[in-house]
Amino acid sequence: MIVDEKTYKNILIESKKFASNAKYGTHLSSFGSEGIDFRELSEYNEGDDIRKIHWPTSAKKQSLYVKKFDESKNLSIHIISLLSGSLYFGSDILKQELLARIVAILSYATIFQKDTLNSAIFIDEVKHKFKNIKKSSSVTSIIKQILEYEVIGSSIDYEALSKYISSIKKRSVIFLVGDFMSDISALKVSSKHDVRAIVVRDKFEENPKNLNNISFINPETNEIVSSLPLQNYSNMVECQNHIIRQSFYKYRIKSTQLNSHNLNKKIKFI
What we know:
Elements: H1 5-21, E1 37-43, H2 55-61, E2 65-70, E3 76-82, H3 95-112, E4 116-122, E5 126-133, H4 139-148, H5 158-166, E6 173-178, E7 194-200, H6 203-206, E8 214-218, E9 223-228, H7 230-250, E10 254-258, H8 263-266
Parallel strand pairs: 3-4, 3-6, 6-7, 7-10
Antiparallel strand pairs: 1-2, 4-5, 8-9
Helix pairs in contact: 1-3, 3-4
Protein name: DUF58 domain-containing protein
InterPro entries: DUF58 (IPR002881)
Domain DUF58: 42-225
C-alpha cells in the first residue's frame, strides 16, 4: 500500500494525541491491577483475603492456606495485526489505513499506561514482530510496516494464528485487529489470555448504498467473484458477521466493530 508522508505523519500525530487524551480506566484489561503472577502458598494470617484461600491445600494440612501473588500492575499487551487482502477496500479510506490508526491508538495507550507492548503482523505466519516496546517512538516502525505491507493476495491462516497465540506464555491481553472476512472456524484460543477482537469495517459494508449491480474482485485471490445485486452483498456481509460473532462467543472473545466514522467514539470502550 502506497501512503504519502503527510498521511503517515497525520496517523501518528492524531493517534498519539487521541490516546493521551482518552480515558481508558486503569488498564486495557479485565485483569485490573491485581497481581496475576502466582508466587506461593502460605498460612493464613489475619487480614489476608479469604477469597484467596486454597481449599485443597487447607484440607490436606488441616490449616488455612492462601495463595500469594506477586502484584504486578504492568500488563503484557499483544497487538496482532491481521493483514488480509480484503483490507484493500474502502469507500472513504482503505481498511488497511483504518487498521493502522487503530493499532497506533492502542499502542500509544499501552505505552502511556506503562504496560509492556508486543506487536506482530500476521498473515499465514508472523511476518514482523516487535517485542517489549516501552517508548512511543517505536510505534512509528510498527505503523510503517502495516501501511507499507502489500496485502493483495494475502489470506489469514487462523490455525497458525491459534498456535501463535498458544505460544505466548505470559498471561496477556491480546488484541486481534482485522476485518475477519474469511473463514475463521480454525481460530481457537484458551481462557488463559484476555483476547479481544477489533473488527475493521468500511461504512459501505455496514450500510451498502444503491449502486445497482456491482462486480467484486476478491483482493485475497485477485479473482472476480461475481456480479451481485446489492442485497445479496449485504446478506453476505451480515452472514459473515453472524459467523464471527458465534466464534467469538464460543471462545469468550470480546469484540467490537469499528469504521472510520465511529472509531473515536467506540475505541474508548474496548
